Sequence to fold (301 residues):
Amino acid sequence: MTKKIAVINDLSGFGRCSLTAAISVISVMGVQPCPLPTAILSGQTGYPHYYCDSYTDKMPLIRTEWEKMGVRFDGICTGFLADERQVKQIQMFLDSFLTEDTFLLVDPVLGGDGKPHGLFTEGLLEKMRELCQKADIITPNLTELCLLTGADYGELGSIKNISLLMEVLSELARSLLHGRLREVLVTGICYTDGDGVPMMGNLDVTAGGHDLIPFPCIGGSYSGTGDLFAACIAAGMARGDTVTDTVRLAGKFISLALSDSIKEQVPRNDGVNYEKYLSMLAPSGTLCNGSDTHISPASSS
Fold:
């Protein structure tokens, strides 16, 4: 039977992010996405102006109908929240659908590039911290890790020794491991390796240690890459892949999309050209977009 993931996130008309990214990625990875919108936006919040219709009051109506249907989920994935009241709605959703056999992935969408997003409030931050304690795994970027832990983004950026930086980031991530939370994936860490080559890394942190999974730094900061990454991880968990294998697969997928977007000079707010690379995420042995050649997690290292 096809695995199912409840995806709680916004729907943005432009920006190639949130539900647009999650639905396409999770579907092509052989898992059924079941979207529950938190808001409808004309475009993601990085644009100079946008319209946002919060779905806070509509979320419980959808939850109630799903309860009547008696549905169950293999995983639950949360992303952008329009306001702090939505955390309470998500907690009520978890009371109904989160079981010992269901994983919860929280992408704590709070900001990027050292700055919080336009709808950020201290109240939202506090509620996001509470939500993270209910998750099995969270996927903050460096900005979000700093916001969640109270660390100084500028001070972290001044650390040039990669080993020291990873130790500091690991300790920050490990400080969040309370409640149900057992794993923190810190995404999009820019650094220079021992040979002076710019790199981009994703740091997987558990109570037992940490693992840096590196990729060449292509450059550029684009909307939606965090959503694509979180969707890959969630779908990989649902289909039984290891987190490490899925991080490698997601890294290759996003790197190709980034490279293509930089080459075409796509505006960062418009997101990355990921559509043409979706087939590489499909399970081995399946047909996708007319191709029978896919990169499986086991062969992506």
Notes: The first strand starts at residue 4 and ends at 12. The longest helix spans residues 243-263. The chain has one domain: 4-299.
